[in-house]
């Protein structure tokens, strides 16, 4: 039976829980994943194609939201937890360097994200 990849498919089958005593506060409940080259990633998942759709919102980034993907996630999804979706879909690796006022971000609906494995 083939494995179906979703936005939440981990890089490896094994999740490595972090040591709670040594994790920074906001990441203390995150999981670390290990890829085939033995590199570790914090809460990173295998990319899946999520093509543009007519239901996506095109959001023009305001100055107060530059480098604040958690705030944008909260505006659209009522939780900051999906900041990584916004960054990934818009090709942003470093929000401090790549986000600027006036840029347009594609924000899919929660319903579309759910179709790809992201749970509300």
How does the SSE layout of this entry go?
Elements: E1 16-17, E2 31-34, E3 40-42, E4 57-60, H1 69-77, H2 83-89, H3 95-98, E5 104-107, H4 110-115
Antiparallel strand pairs: 1-2, 2-3, 4-5
Helix pairs in contact: 1-2
Description:
This protein has 120 residues and is an alpha+beta fold. It contains four helices and five strands; from the N terminus they run E-E-E-E-H-H-H-E-H. The longest helix has 9 residues, at 69-77. It is globular. The two termini are 27 Å apart.
Q: How far do the termini sit from each other?
A: 27 Å
Silhouette: globular
Biggest sheet statistics: 3 strands, antiparallel
**How many structural domains can be distinguished in the coordinates?**
2
Stretches with pLDDT under 50, minimum 5 residues = 1-18
- For this entry, what is the oligomeric state of its chains? single chain
Proportion of residues in helical segments: 10-25%
Structural class: alpha+beta
Radius of gyration: 15 Å
Work out the strand percent: 5-15%
Keywords for this entry:
single chain; 120 residues; alpha+beta; 2 domains; three-stranded antiparallel beta sheet; two-stranded antiparallel ribbon; 5 strands; 22% helix; globular; disordered N terminus
Can you give me a brief rundown of this structure?
The protein is an alpha+beta fold and 120 residues long. The chain has two domains: 1-48, no CATH class; 57-115. It has helices at 69-77, 83-89, 95-98, 110-115; strands at 16-17, 31-34, 40-42, 57-60, 104-107.
């Amino acid at each position: 039976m083939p494995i179906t990849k979703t936005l939440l498919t981990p890089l490896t089958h094994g999740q490595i829980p972090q040591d709670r005593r040594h994790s920074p506060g906001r990441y203390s409940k995150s999981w670390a994943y290990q890829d085939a080259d033995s590199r570790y990633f914090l809460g990173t998942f295998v990319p899946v194609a999520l093509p543009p759709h007519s239901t996506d919102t095109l959001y023009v980034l305001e100055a107060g939201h530059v480098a604040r993907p958690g705030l944008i996630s909260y505006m659209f999804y009522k939780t900051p937890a999906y900041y990584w979706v916004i960054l990934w879909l818009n090709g942003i690796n470093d929000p401090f360097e790549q986000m600027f006022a006036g840029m347009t971000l594609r924000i899919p609906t929660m319903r579309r994200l759910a179709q790809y494995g992201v749970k509300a």
